[in-house]
Structures
1.
Amino acid sequence: MKKENRVKKNKDFQEIFKKGKSFANRQFVVYSLRRPGQTHFRIGLSVSKKLGNAVKRNQIKRYIRQAFLELEDDLQNEFDYIIIARKPAADMDFFEIKSSLIHVLKLSKVLNVKKINKKLQ
């Protein structure tokens, strides 16, 4: 994930939390905020210490980043996303995490559902 595609500043996180819309399932909470004129989506990750040690938390973050890279063509570019991992995500492998993210992004209506359905078939 390139530096310009990440949400890093606390100010940006707070703005997305306040102004953005949130959608959730058991494993993830996704906040999304439209940024008109933005050429590429940005992503911020939050994985609590309650989910495990540093190795496990970094593994979860790597899985989430990889899932977003694979879904890059199907996501709307004018958005900033914050993904908060919940406890069940610690016990999931990459494919389960990707499937769960697809589910929550469909709920938030930022994912092109037709393209995803064709890829899954």
2.
Amino acid sequence: MKKLINKHLTTLKTTPKTLLLVYVIVYFLWGLGMNRFGAEMEIARFTYWWQVITCYILYMVPISILLREYKFFEQYAYGLVAMGILEFLGYWLKTSYAYPDNVLDHFFNPQNFSLGMALFFALYFPAGNWFVNKVHSVIIPQKTE
């Protein structure tokens, strides 16, 4: 276990600073946008706006970096576990608010709401890694030797 933790810490520590900065900016803007969208559509929102920082930057960015070398479905599967835990804790601790009788409740019913949210948000890991890599390669072109 210690070996695995050290490997993950090394991966995080050796991530290029420019790549890390792109992750932080992209995920922060993405989180603000999704929180706003969820509130405007009266689906769900964070209880406090700053939870975008704790969830998207402090939780999702490191997980994304650890998953970035995996294939799409592996990123999605691991992301599903990570988002399942996050969604469960968010609604249990009441740090996330689901609007009653929201549009997703009508499609999937209230009992499936957080499962649906976890299934959707697990796509953030492969999609986020793809997008961040594209943005980073435009900003910092890779040297060909």
3.
Amino acid sequence: MNTPTHQLSSEEVRVIVDADDLHISPLRADGVTYGTPTWIWSVRVDDALYVRAYHGQSSRWYQAAVLHKTGRIHAAGLTKEVVFEPISGPLNDRIDAAYRAKYASSPYLGAMISSRAQAATIRLAPLES
């Protein structure tokens, strides 16, 4: 059975966040096929990689991620099988700060640090075979 391991390596997280080109593909309803890759913002906090759903918990990719708990990411030439770990609580304040620092000039920043998006925060961890 697949289980989550430690975090992605610090270098992998740096490369992914710096490239700002993360595509996420949770498993589809069949639990086997990967969904269509969705481009998504990513941030780094303490060498861990976090993403949020712009449309909150109603986002299709978020719902699939929470239901199936695994999927795949593509970024900066890397392809990784990952586990989706929902995040809540005080860590969201630090994740907000990372979004503010990285996307300060974006008109979409407000939506990404809203309570709606906070409720759909996911930590990406590597999947162990």
